[in-house]
Specification:
Layout: H1 3-16, E1 25-27, H2 31-34, H3 38-47, E2 59-73, E3 96-109, E4 113-125, H4 129-140, E5 147-150, E6 153-156, E7 167-177, E8 180-189, E9 198-205, E10 210-218, E11 227-237, E12 240-253, E13 263-277, E14 301-303, H5 317-343, E15 346-349, E16 352-355, H6 356-359, E17 360-363, E18 367-376, E19 384-393, E20 398-407, E21 416-427, E22 453-468, E23 471-483, H7 489-493, E24 499-510, E25 516-519, E26 522-525, E27 532-541, E28 551-560, E29 568-578, E30 588-589, E31 592-594, E32 598-600, E33 606-610, E34 615-616, E35 618-627, H8 629-632, E36 642-653, H9 656-662, E37 667-684, E38 687-697, E39 709-717
Parallel strand pairs: 31-33, 32-39
Antiparallel strand pairs: 1-7, 2-3, 2-13, 3-4, 4-14, 5-6, 7-8, 8-9, 9-10, 10-11, 11-12, 12-13, 15-16, 16-18, 17-18, 18-19, 19-20, 20-21, 21-22, 22-23, 23-24, 24-27, 25-26, 27-28, 28-29, 29-35, 30-34, 35-36, 36-37, 37-38, 38-39
Length: 719
């Protein structure tokens, strides 16, 4: 038994319960603390809270000992709700229906490796799937996570950032022990807030600004709901305060509160030993099945992204539950992978990926597009892929085709060399960033709304590489013949003779926090990053039949502002500049997405600006979206609509020579619009729907009020 840990825990617990024990000096708050509110202290603690959470470290290793039991009992009494005196479980007590003791080693390695390996397990009593589910869930409960999940409910942790607006916090006495001051803070849900949360007390080490102990019980709005009583302790390891012990009692009502003997009490005591912060771990340490060094029986392993299971004991239902969980998780992983392929326009068929955008596509200019297209994958060859397409647009009545080949010199790197020919329609001033069009990113929906396009037949060659995880670049050169079919009012008003271009360029993407996973021999991104930065530089050359010598640069950055109590704010900044020698097809368009009074929503574009209404050689634009969801709804709410305010501002200009030469219009006086959206209204599995309204004002607003409005509907994929 760890007597030092037990003594520390008893000291803190006794102070919280108001019991005067030997060796403890209870004092009133010092003058310094009296001048600080509980929320002020807690905000400072929350800034350092990641230092107490093992999941925030690059790597982590520890041994966990859990003792779990469940028994039938009378209705719980208020005076026995927080029982912190028992440290052992008598496995031979016949009053208990089920008991289990497990010793587990856990390993974590960012970004997505988590593994639990059972070293030993002992089970007694009646087998029941509910008991094994309870044991597993209770072993993973922690106040350090934003939500405490139990069965089918989620409880908002008092240590979540969003909790500051939903809980009331009050300073109590401070406790002085061995020179350290512990601030005692009581908390409970605010009177005007109704959510699943906790009532309890926490002890904060003032010197370390760390949570040292927290005791709480769940807030019950219905006596038939489970009642959770949790006591979580922390110990200092080097300069960190890490979880050391967790005691949990759960009072479960099987049928009705009127029948006293129908209550079950589940108890779990978890102790964490030999904790190592940032140990030298590698992906090779996370295997699908590990042989135990003590015997020949494989142990159970649950690893994110890499699952495997072999039973220690066929009667061990907890391990069977973990095996079932691993199988279900792997099925979800495969299902998610398939959904992501589909949102990228791919249908994997063994050695070949069909591009369904070539089979069935659409935009306003080309109309319905039918054809066939796809690419071989790395299952066919590790060193190359070959792809192509042919399509027909029902509105422009043209057949388009393309072919390409990708070379991969090394299996161990993400280096790609591409040679391609594409006969394709392109938007005038289309952005050329190093990004993939996917339905997971609603910004790409704007490509469905394009009304004016020109034809380009382009030969290109390039090399793409990822020097390190967050940085990707593509260096290219191309030769193209470009002409306008003049089959829309805009193209007839702005005709141009065929243009021959020779270009070289560099596309850069920097994405901090990106999650990558190897698929088909390449690293594929598994998330929509919170921040993303793009830069494209193009140089037009007067060689190889190139007719224009010009320089063009364009930038886009997406990032989130620091979270506030009123929600989350995302900003996209765009800007570009080019020399005056650039041809009309290279001029920036205003990035408008107004295709009609009622049209598809395309975030981070100008919702009330008409397609090709403006053109510019130099521009800047800011698109802001503020989501009020985290302010309006508890963090544990599973189905919450998203109330979003959007503000779009832009300014761009052409020089006088370009205005006259191309008969175009810029927006040098500034373009302004504001909008409001309600998203996540109708939800089904991976898809949700929303609506919005935008209003245009400022120097370029229309004289008729109703023409300044745009009404939007949108759909959103989320994995």
């Amino acid at each position: 038994m760890n007597w030092t840990k037990l003594k520390s825990s008893l000291i803190v617990i006794t102070a919280i319960l108001g019991i005067n024990g030997s060796g403890l000096a209870s004092t009133r708050l010092s003058d310094t603390l009296a001048n600080q509110s509980a929320e002020t202290i807690l905000k400072m603690v929350l800034q350092r809270l990641p230092e107490q959470n093992p999941s925030s470290f690059n790597s982590y290793r520890a041994i966990t000992h859990q003792r779990f039991r469940i028994k039938a009992n009378l209705s719980p009494r208020a005076e026995s709700l927080i029982d912190t005196t028992e440290n052992t479980i008598n496995q031979n007590n016949r009053n208990y229906l089920f008991s289990k003791e497990t010793l587990t080693i856990q390993r974590r390695l960012k970004p997505d490796f988590i593994q639990f390996e059972n070293l030993s397990a002992r089970t007694e009593g009646k087998e029941d799937s509910l008991y094994t589910i309870l044991a597993w869930q209770l072993s993973n409960i922690s106040f350090l996570e934003p939500a405490v999940s139990f069965l089918d409910k989620g409880y908002l942790s008092p240590l979540a950032n969003v909790a500051l607006g939903n809980y009331d916090y009050h300073l109590s006495d401070s406790i002085t022990n061995s020179g350290d001051t512990l601030c005692i803070i009581k908390f409970h849900p605010k009177v005007d807030k109704r959510f699943d949360g906790f009532i309890g007390t926490m002890a904060i080490n003032k010197k370390a600004l760390a949570i040292q102990q927290i005791s709480a019980r769940s807030k019950q709005y219905n006596p038939k709901e489970p009642l959770l009583v949790i006591n979580q302790n922390f110990e200092q390891i080097n300069a960190f305060w890490l979880p050391s012990e967790r005691k949990i009692k759960v009072y479960l009502n099987k049928r009705s509160v009127s029948v006293q003997d129908n209550h079950l009490i589940a108890e779990s005591i978890t102790n964490i030993y030999q904790q190592e912060i940032n140990p030298p771990l590698s992906p090779n340490d996370f295997s699908a099945a590990i042989q135990s060094p003590k015997n020949d029986h494989p142990t159970a392993v649950l690893t994110t992204g890499n699952y495997g299971y072999r039973p220690i004991n066929q009667n061990d239902s907890l391990l069977q539950l973990r095996a079932d969980s691993a199988i279900m998780a792997e099925n979800r992983n495969q299902q998610t992978k398939l959904i992501r392929f589909i949102t990228e326009g791919k249908i994997p068929l063994r050695y070949f990926n069909i591009d369904y955008n070539r089979i069935f596509g659409y935009n306003i200019y080309e109309g319905l597009k039918l054809g066939i297209g796809g690419e071989t994958n790395r299952l066919l060859s590790k060193h190359f892929t070959v792809g192509g397409y042919i399509s027909y647009g029902h509105k422009d009545r043209a057949v388009r085709n393309g072919e390409w080949i990708n070379f991969y010199p090394s299996r161990s790197t993400d280096l790609r060399i591409q040679v391609a020919y594409k006969d394709v329609n392109m938007e005038l001033g289309e952005p050329e960033f190093l990004e993939t069009k996917t339905l997971l990113n609603p910004e790409s929906y704007r490509y469905l709304l394009i009304k004016n396009m020109y034809v380009t037949k382009r030969y290109s060659a390039g090399i793409e590489s990822r020097p390190f995880k967050a940085l990707n670049y593509y260096l290219f050169g191309d030769l193209s013949e470009n002409h306008s079919p003049q089959n829309t009012p805009y193209l007839r008003d702005h005709p141009f003779i065929p243009i021959s271009l020779a270009r070289t360029g560099l596309q850069i993407r920097y994405t901090p926090g990106i999650v990558l996973q190897m698929e088909d021999g390449r690293q594929k991104e598994m998330n929509i990053p919170k921040s993303d930065y793009y830069l494209t530089i193009i140089q037009g050359l007067s060689i190889l039949s190139g007719e224009y010598h010009y320089t063009k640069a364009e930038f886009k950055g997406k990032f989130n502002l620091p979270s506030s109590g009123l929600g989350t704010t995302t900003i996209v900044f765009r800007g570009g500049a080019m020399s005056q020698e650039a041809p009309i097809i290279e001029l920036f368009n205003g990035y408008g997405s107004f295709a009609g009074v009622f049209s598809l929503s395309a975030p981070y574009s100008f919702a009330t600006m008409q397609l090709n209404e403006f053109s510019t050689a130099n521009y800047t634009a800011v698109h802001l979206r503020h989501d009020f969801s985290t302010w309006l709804f508890p963090e544990t709410s599973q189905k919450k609509p998203a109330f979003i305010f959007a503000q779009n501002i832009g300014c761009g200009q052409l020089n006088n020579q370009q205005l006259i030469k191309y008969n175009l219009k810029d927006y040098r006086k500034g373009f302004y619009e504001s909008g409001f959206e309600v998203n996540n209204l109708l939800r089904m599995n991976y898809l949700s729907w929303g609506v919005g309204i935008y209003y245009r004002y400022g120097p370029y607003q229309f004289s008729s009020t109703h023409e300044n409005f745009a009404y939007k509907f949108g759909f959103f994929f989320k994995l």
